[in-house]
Give the backbone structure.
Amino acid sequence: MKKLASTIVAAGLIASSVAADSAITAVKVNADLDRVNYKSAVWKDAKFSTVTLYPQTTIEFNDKKANALNTANKAVKAKIAAVYNDSRIAFLIGWSDETKNVTTGTKTDEYADGFAVQFASNSTNPKELPYIGMGSDGRPVVIHLQKEAIGVFEPNGNGDVSHQINPNQTDLFGEDLKNFNKKVKRLASTDYERSFVSEGFRSMTEIKDASNKSYSRIGYASGGWSGTVSRPLKDEYVNLNAASIPVAFAVWDGEKMGRNGLKNLTAWTAVKLEGKKGGDALVTALHGKVAGDAAKGKEAAMMNGCTGCHQMEATDAANLMGPSLTNIGGYSTVDYLRESLVNPSAVVVPGYNRNAHSNYAWYNIENGKRVSTMPDHSWMEKADLDNIVAYLKTLKAEVK
Ligand code: HEC
């Protein structure tokens, strides 16, 4: 079965010629999905789609080395499949990565490869989905994160790095070794699996209690990773039991010290649950044709001073007055881009770095709420707005 995992990654490479990302189909299955992993037979019945994950460029780190490693990041492709049954939905993601990076828990400057699958807690209005990077105020998301960690034993069972022991290096034998191994089995952390509810980076809450019924796995073979997440169709955090749902995917590259916002991610992508009727509004909102003329939009952006605050294209000089928009078209929906123009404070993007650009605040606090310093452009003609949005949609890194 190991073959399946590498096949997925290889298939992902072949499919890199697919032009645009479209909706993903979740196939209805009878199989039990509680403990599904990337080797499970159920994926033979699945339909594979290709998604493109773009470098998130809004977050600026106080880490010169990491910033240098990530300046010329390209987009990457991943293969996605989804299956569901009466109670659960599961996703498989396969992507290539030449270097395998895992955390051993014994060093602080190690970064693991990994992936995340994100859901919108509320998607009844496809035009007002949460901010793609971990949600936003009043628009929560649920995130399942899985990174690769190898087994480390910590005798007290509370993950304290300074007390960790590598199980291969004990001088115990006989009955003592047996007891030690039992304890290792019980307490060693071989898994880095986390679930969060988040309304932006500042308000991430890990779901640690029994209400978390998700299950995820990750494995490396033949130059690529395969990962799976299985979760209930419906729980207290999100209801995915619908004809179509918005889902987003992210991958981290430990080799480039990727962590937090230093990652590649997709835009909200529609997943259609095969056999259920409806859900077209979401598919159209996320994958429909973009109205407007990008060339005219570029002109309108110049005329309206967008470049006074934003780096728009990779060849433009960096501009600290606002976030870089060089990849914005890769991971933003058309509706999000329009909203950014006509109602800038609806979502205030994370990443403002007081140390890096203290003179250019991206927002001010008024009555306890963050208010964007970007001017409101709701006065613009509809045609100009359409054209600018069409132009913004073209701003994205090339695919690796
Ligand atoms: C005075 C400076 C300023 C001007 C002019 C300006 N912006 Fe912004 N813009 C910002 C700031 C600051 C933010 C971040 C705060 C926020 O989320 O609103 C931002 C956010 C954005 C975002 C969301 C970015 C993200 O990462 O999600 C988009 C899209 C955007 N601007 C597009 C434009 C366009 C197009 C124009 C020209 C019509 C423009 N901006 C003009 C300052 C500006």
Remarks:
- The first helix runs from residue 2 to 14.
- The pocket of heme C is lined by residues 58, 301, 304-306, 308-310, 321-323, 325, 328, 337, 340-341, 344, 347-349, 362-363, 372-375, 377, 388, 392 (CB under 6 Å).
- The radius of gyration is 22 Å.
